[in-house]
Write a structure and sequence with these properties.
By secondary structure, the protein is α+β, with helices and mostly antiparallel strands. It has a single domain (8-139), classed as 3-Layer(aba) Sandwich (Aminopeptidase), CATH 3.40.630. The chain has helices spanning 8-11, 22-37, 43-53, 56-65, 106-116, 133-139, and strands spanning 13-16, 67-73, 76-85, 90-97, 124-126. A five-stranded mixed sheet has the order 1-2-3-4-5, sandwiched between helices. Strand 2 and strand 3 (76-85) form a beta hairpin. It is globular, with a radius of gyration of 15 Å. The protein starts with 7 loop residues before the first helix and ends with a helix. This is GNAT family N-acetyltransferase. Residues 12-140 form the N-acetyltransferase domain. InterPro entries: Acyl_CoA_acyltransferase, Bact_Acetyltransf, GNAT_dom. Keywords: Acyltransferase, Transferase. It comes from Sporolactobacillus sp. Y61.
């Protein structure tokens, strides 16, 4: 897909994730984890985590029971955000956008979708891995 010269944010649709998106979400997770954590987390540990967190079983649970949004352009998933609402607050579990599309407000739009659906939750808790400069810049 050629992103140069396109009006990226206008062409990206944010919507609730569906089970049919699982393979694409898994692909985005792997690509973004490689780019984000290559110097922080050994590849073997990345693979172990991703295999469990994005298994068919866990994806079904996450899509059915949590806030899970995808960013879609031209029929392709290019990012996603996932949050769990607890008793008094919510926790942002994941927010990832393909590396070549970062910096075009897609992550901000995904985050806004989560925030708009928090209902009674008083706050959104976010943890950023130490050394994750991309994540640190995004939240500051």
């Amino acid at each position: 897909m050629d992103w140069e010269g396109s009006t990226i944010t206008r062409d990206v649709k944010i919507r609730k994730a569906q089970l049919k998106d699982t393979v694409s979400i898994r692909k985005v997770a792997r690509i973004t984890w490689r780019a984000t954590y290559q110097e922080l987390i050994p590849i073997k540990i990345q693979n172990q985590f991703l295999n469990v967190a994005y298994s068919d079983r866990n994806m079904k649970l996450r899509i059915d029971q949590t806030l899970f949004f995808v960013a879609e352009q031209e029929g392709e998933i290019v990012g996603f955000a996932n949050a769990t609402i607890k008793k008094d607050d919510a926790e942002l579990s994941a927010i990832y956008v393909l590396p070549e599309l970062q910096g075009h407000s897609i992550g901000s739009r995904l985050l806004q979708s989560v925030l708009s659906n928090l209902d009674h939750a008083g706050q959104l808790v976010v943890d950023v891995e130490s050394g994750n400069q991309i994540g640190e810049r995004f939240y500051h």
